[in-house]
Design a protein that fits this description.
By secondary structure, the protein is mainly α. The protein is 71% helix and 1% strand. The chain has one domain: Ammonium transporter AmtB like domains (Ammonium transporter fold), CATH 1.10.3430. A hairpin with a 2-residue loop joins strand 1 and strand 2.
Length: 432
């Protein structure tokens, strides 16, 4: 009896293990709960960048009579792009395009191929697509700053719908969805090319074709509330951790490295811009340090998962220096009215960060890209930037011409003088 009892216990334990093991194995093959939780959080953080982050950042920079117009544009873009992404955008960007896959994806109309059990790596595909949606939302919203205070709301919506369809989704596919730039080896961890170069070039083309605001550059067009701008910039900084660290698509070491690089580059960019302004004007400004931090965040986006602390510090310093020149000297030299310096910060910062990724991703600088040839990688990065500049520039030009023919681009001089809040939305941002 004494011998029998241990045997019964062992048999019972073995039976429990046999029953449980298949369940344990099944659980291990599904999405990882830790990765899923982090990606849900990252998706919320990136959406937080557009509304309220970018909306407040831009709202503070325009004049008081236009504060609601830019917030409305950011909010409407969020709604519209979500619908377009659901109907066909996700399929174009991340679907399998078959023989055309190097150029564009296909399928997944109305997200029909996504179920409870479909996964992308260690996360549910439903979470992956919502994370990518937040990138598709923030990219066109960035362009709002270039045409602020003078573009029709109807024209802005039509432009954004065409631009997201014809420009954003193909470039996202080329880099992240299995297209030819990704196959070439282009490194774009979190959107230096797909988001910032893309939006920056589109912003430059659009603001040039749209023309200057009435009174620019002779009349003072001071921000209505730097408090709103700094609050928005702070929200952008926080949201950027989801933007960059979330692009690891997991909660592991790569996400931690990207978060570390993001913080260092933002701080480096902010201090660099502040010092340049201090030396130039004799006083440091809150707008300068906030803008410099955004420049550092933009430039580290393509590099975040590939560079170490030294690389992040240098990318923030170099990018803020060049963005300072772009937002000041370059714009004055050529006289275009990029209202809120979208090209100066995002176009230049994204391009500089993408090229510097080739430098600081190497092992010599503490990077994680291995022993790739610097010259080869720099050439690949340069091709990625140039392809995006040419494609985005030409398509944006074409879309602007179409929109102008269909609904017209600009508000009337009377509407611009009154302000877009009242003339287009019949509301006031401030009832003082």
């Amino acid at each position: 009896m004494k011998i029998l009892m241990p045997r019964i216990a062992i048999s019972a334990a073995a039976t429990v293990l046999l029953v449980a093991c298949p369940r344990l194995a099944a659980a291990q093959t599904g999405p990882d709960t830790g990765d899923t939780a982090w990606m849900l959080t990252s998706s919320i953080l990136v959406l937080f960048m557009t509304i309220p982050g970018l909306a407040l950042f831009y709202a503070g920079l325009v004049r008081a009579k236009n504060v609601l117009s830019v917030m409305m544009q950011c909010f409407a873009i969020t709604c519209m792009v979500t619908l377009l992404w659901t109907v066909y955008g996700y399929g174009l960007a991340f679907g399998d395009g078959g023989v055309l896959n190097s150029v564009i994806g296909s399928g997944n109309i109305l997200l029909s191929d996504i179920g409870l059990d479909t996964a992308r790596g260690t996360i549910p595909e439903s979470v992956f697509q919502i994370f990518q949606l937040t990138f598709a939302v923030v990219t066109p919203a960035l362009i709002v700053g270039a045409f602020a205070e003078r573009m029709k709301f109807s024209a802005a919506l039509l432009f954004m719908a065409l631009w997201v369809t014809l420009v954003y989704t193909p470039i996202a596919h080329w880099v992240w969805g299995g297209g030819f730039l990704g196959e070439m080896g282009v490194l774009d961890f979190a959107g230096g090319i797909v988001v910032h170069v893309n939006a920056g070039i589109a912003a430059l083309v659009l603001c040039i074709l749209l023309g200057e605001r009435r009174g620019y550059p002779n009349n003072t067009m001071a921000p209505n509330s730097l408090v709103l701008t700094v609050v928005g910039a702070s929200m952008l900084w926080i949201g950027w951790f989801g933007f960059n660290a979330g692009s690891a698509l997991s909660a592991g070491g790569s996400a931690g490295f990207a978060m570390m690089a993001t913080q260092i580059s933002a701080a480096s960019g902010g201090m660099t811009w502040m010092l340049f302004e201090w030396l130039r004007h004799g006083k440091p400004s809150v707008l300068g340090i906030a803008t410099g931090s955004i420049a550092g965040l933009v430039a580290i986006s393509p590099a975040a998962g590939f560079v170490g602390p030294t690389g992040a510090l240098m990318i923030g310093l170099i990018s803020a220096s060049l963005c300072f020149w772009g937002a000041n000297g370059l714009k004055r030299r050529f006289g275009y009215d990029d209202s809120l310096d979208v090209f100066g910060v995002h176009g230049i910062g994204g391009g500089v960060g993408t090229l510097l990724t080739a430098v600081f991703a190497s092992n010599a600088w503490g990077g994680l890209a291995g022993n790739q040839s610097f010259r080869l990688l720099l050439g690949v990065q340069a091709i990625g930037v140039m392809v995006t500049v040419i494609y985005s520039g030409i398509l944006t030009l074409t879309i602007v011409k179409i929109v102008d023919k269909v609904v017209g681009l600009r508000v009337t001089p009377e509407e611009e003088g009154l302000g877009l809040d009242l003339s287009l939305h019949d509301e006031r941002g401030f009832n003082l």
